[in-house]
Amino acid sequence: AHRVLLIVALVVGALMMTAAVGQPAHAWLAWFALLPLFFVIRLWRPIHAAEGGALWGVFIFVFSITQPAPAIAPTVQSLVLLTTAPAIYAGLGATVTRWIGFNPFILGVAWMGLELALAPAGLRSGLLGAAPAQGAIMEWVGGALGYVLVAFFVVLVSASLVSVLSGVRFTVLRLLGWVSLPDRGAAISPQTSVDLSLFASRSFRPRAPPDALATLNLHVVW
After folding, report:
1. Which residues cross the membrane (predicted)?
2. Residues 111/152, Cβ–Cβ less than 8 Å
3. DSSP secondary structure letters along 5-21
4. What gap in Å lies between CA 64 and CA 70, rounded to an integer?
5. Percent of the chain having pLDDT more than 70?
6. Residue 60 belongs to what H/E stretch?
7. CB environment 118-127: b (16+ within 10 A), e (fewer)
8. Cys-Cys crosslink for 14: which of 59, 167, 184, 188, Cβ 3.0 to 4.6 Å?
9. Which of 161, 50, 145, 149 is nearest to 109 (CA)?
10. Quick one: which of 82, 101, 103 has its CA closest to 17?
């Protein structure tokens, strides 16, 4: 069920990104358009994350060419770029996340490369270059350092928000009793198994390599 919800969220995020790129008055939507993509990177396996990134990019192209004055060139080259670049970004992002944990800084640096890769699609300021244009400070940053650094800042904030929301989700599940932490003061019975998979998926915590077991079990035997 959560996979279907994320797919729907990816489509909605693509629609928000299209509106942000095509209409300056809606540029603020770009701050939220990336959230579904980052949740996919954080939660899905690399191959599925790549598929989600491709889906996100395809819908950006589809929504863009339906506008009277599309901000993205309606060409085959644009379609290929918007399909492959987000797919590679999401797939590699999910792979890195499985090794070292979800890292907004690394995702921000990688996004700068994605923006440069999408330049031939006709995006003068990239996908995120116009997002924070309403702020005087970010206008200065964009003018002095380039739109890719503006995009880095937007990605850093959005990915950090995903980390916060993921932590809140874990806390809520624990308060509801759906996730339990081991009691340090209680005796551990023989053959007790403590599931560590939830802890391994938390923000900034290293994950097991892709080829290792998805769930780590700690067995304590008296």
Report:
1. 30-47, 54-73, 79-97, 104-123, 143-165
2. yes
3. HHHHHHHHHHHHHHHHH
4. 5
5. 63
6. helix 46-65
7. beebbbebbb
8. 59
9. 149
10. 82
Q: How many residues does the chain have?
A: 222
SS3 123: coil
pLDDT tens column, 141-178: 444 455 667 677 788 888 888 877 776 655 655 565 55
Question: What pLDDT shows up at residue 129?
Answer: 62
Mark residue 20 as left, alpha or beta (left: phi above 0; alpha: psi -120 to 50; beta: remaining).
alpha
pLDDT confidence band for 73 (50 / 70 / 90): confident
Distance CA 88, CA 49 (A): 9
Is the pLDDT higher at 108 or at 138?
Answer: 108
Q: Which residues have a Cβ under 8 Å from the Cβ of 187 and sit 6 or more positions away? A: none
CA atoms within 13 A on the CB side of 128: 24
Distance CA 211, CA 222 (A): 30
Higher per-residue confidence, 169 vs 62: 62
Residue 39, pLDDT score: 94
Instruction: Return d(Cα 20, Cα 84) in angstroms, integer.
Output: 21
What are the phi and psi torsion angles at 56 (to 5°)?
Answer: -60, -45
pLDDT recorded at residue 212: 42
Backbone dihedral angles phi then psi of residue 60, each to the nearest 5 degrees: -60, -45
Distance, CA of 89 to CA of 96 (rounded, Å): 11
